[in-house]
Amino acid sequence: MNEVRIGIIGLGFIGCMHAASLAKGDVPGAVLTAVCDSNPDKAQWVKENLGENVTLFTDVDEFLTSNIIDGVMIATPHPFHTELAIKAFKHGLNVLVEKPAGVHTKEVRLMNEAAAAAGKVFSMMFNQRLNPLYMKLRDIIASGELGEIKRTTWIITNWFRAQSYYDQAGWRATWAGEGGGVLINQDPHQLDLWQWVIGMMPKRVRAFCHFGKHHNIEVEDDVTAYVEYENGATGTFVTSTGEAPGTNRLEINGDLGKIVVEDEKITFWRLSVPTSEFSLSFKGKGFQQPECEKIDVPIEGEINEYNWSGIIQNWVEAIAKGTELIAPGEEGIKSLTLSNAMQLSTWTDNWVNLPIDEDLYYEHLQEQINKSKAKVNV
Amino acid sequence: MNEVRIGIIGLGFIGCMHAASLAKGDVPGAVLTAVCDSNPDKAQWVKENLGENVTLFTDVDEFLTSNIIDGVMIATPHPFHTELAIKAFKHGLNVLVEKPAGVHTKEVRLMNEAAAAAGKVFSMMFNQRLNPLYMKLRDIIASGELGEIKRTTWIITNWFRAQSYYDQAGWRATWAGEGGGVLINQDPHQLDLWQWVIGMMPKRVRAFCHFGKHHNIEVEDDVTAYVEYENGATGTFVTSTGEAPGTNRLEINGDLGKIVVEDEKITFWRLSVPTSEFSLSFKGKGFQQPECEKIDVPIEGEINEYNWSGIIQNWVEAIAKGTELIAPGEEGIKSLTLSNAMQLSTWTDNWVNLPIDEDLYYEHLQEQINKSKAKVNV
Predict the structure, then answer these.
(1) Residue B287: pLDDT above 70?
(2) What is the pLDDT of residues A361-378, one digit of tens each?
């Protein structure tokens, strides 16, 4: 295969950004050939920013059957992600979906099945998996240096949004337009990293979402979630768009110490013997602890939260030469499961076991959508 | 009144420490005249460490009616605190109780009623209220500089204990002997500070205690609690005796910024306008936040977590000249309510509204005590 021909659907903020990036050659081996947006007014922007060689479609089916694209990047509002991905797979195209994978796991499961049936290259835009900070963290944990995981604590409250942010578009922060708030819009990267860095999903979730607590919006803008893992570990995830300045602090405790990721630094308190072993073998009366060294973990490469082109590059190489995917599309369901479970736990005021009851979640979501005041048709 | 005559009941670790401290004159205006312990073997220790002028009693009633004490410090195992305090009040004595106030709020309420009826000076050994770190924090919050409280997050997991700590005595970490684990033994100071520094108790609690998770013990050694306050604020409290090295990090978010207490330092991110006001008045599209200055808050005086003699001094001055109490005894029920509520929420697997149903808690506790393997009679 020569250059992989890319089409982008959805010319909103992020779609335009990806298009401009591809057009200026940020991704070697890829060429932007087409874009698609239902709004014909985008023609001017396309001409000015993408040049004469990129075709603008306003009809999705014409775009998908144009035979001028090998892979499609889906950058529409999230309620359209899965439907469009499924269509693209049916037309034999490779697919890269913006986060979140979709609005509910029921539709994402169908998307994953369509991907499997098509056998095409399917990736998710989890660009934070290329952030050297979390890559290093994942490597340390995978190496066993931290020992068995005992606790994860993520305070991710640095998502402050003023009311004007939500007032920009009628679909924003509505059940009909987004299917959620901070969990579905701001947090998908962290929800993905939370499970990706430790390689474990929780087995059950008890969460406390607050809807329109800090803003005049329908959806959640403040969440505290508690989770339990199969191995007995526990975790909390605290997030909000209503606090300033927020915090982004991830603490992971293992049998061999503690790691804290904060202020773009990783600090590792590494024990010489596992806590569990020390607890049983220490015979003194006092309060001694295992010997510990504090390490400022060196990070290789520049810390970059926004390495979208790295994910596009990886997807393109997977299409062209079978390179292993960094963010396989099928894994998008994991963070969405966490997000859906947190909302469902709040609505049912009860535990939610994973995998979640997708039909029950869907019912509850529809109920919210039916009550939604969103006047727009996204 | 000349010197206030002090008697100490319970010559365990902490009782001996207080006795030795008083005997060497750490508290001006106070004189240790008597000690009481049911174990007559303590006579040697008393003679060697406290001198000839301190009388040792082995019978509580003789001690309380000896007419050689004005105030009694109760330093027995916690299941005896309230019964002894009530007796002391009935004999017209002033009382200082070691933490926790008792094992369950039902008995502590009776103690508080006895104190009120006696009209004597009643204090709790909440010596961390004299820690300049938390005094400063409380002052900042009381001054309104942080604005309305929105969230409290305390990770207090630096209570690592090896199994040998629990194996030292048969009553340790048993339902019959202590009535709980990390919440009742290690955390009373933090549970007290948690409500004291912000001046608010939660209105409801949902907690997840794990019993004997990290150790071979009956009681909780790992807890995650989520709380909601009347004003809409939320909070989490995470604690454990099974992690090394632990964390002690308190974050409090208000409408005017954020305060973090960690590593014996207070950092205050102070906003120029309240978040709520900024959210409504900011008209841009972007992600701007209110202007913020980061302040390393100066702490007056040496940071001292262990200022027991300061609390004794304050209690003695309150007896001698009516000085206001730093830790009024009646406030001991607050931290115990939080502790009881966290256990009850776990047992009932449900929310616990405050004030808690004391009878229901008592029933559940008795059930645990009946199943307790503690062979000792404390």
Answers:
(1) yes
(2) 999 999 999 998 775 544
d(CA A36, CA A88): 13
For tokens 């500070």, the residue is: B193
Helix (H) or strand (E) holding B50: helix B43-50
**Neighbouring residues of A144: CB distance < 8 A, sequence distance ≥ 6:** none
ipTM for this model = 0.96
Whether pLDDT at B376 is above 70: no
Beta strands per DSSP E along A219-321 = 220-229, 234-240, 248-254, 257-262, 265-271, 292-297
Burial group, residue A374, by CB count within 10 angstroms (0-12, 13-18, 19+):
middle
Inter-axis angle of helices A308-321 and A13-23, nearest 10: 60
**Which of A251, A255, A279 is the best substitution to test chain B (most B C-beta atoms within 10 A)?**
A279
pLDDT of residue B339: 98
Residue B378 in domain: no
User: If you average pLDDT over each of A161-170, B144-153, B163-172, which comes out highest?
Assistant: B144-153
In whole angstroms, give the CA distance from residue A16 to residue B157. Answer: 46
Residue A281: CATH number of its domain: 3.30.360.10
Global pTM?
0.96
Cβ–Cβ under 8 Å, residues A275 and B243: yes
Q: Are B216 and B222 in contact (CB under 8 A)?
A: no
Query: In chain A, which among 288-317 make CB contacts under 8 A with chain B?
Result: 288-290, 292
Contact B258 A243 (CB under 8 A): yes
Regarding whether B184 and B267 lie in a shared domain, the answer is: yes
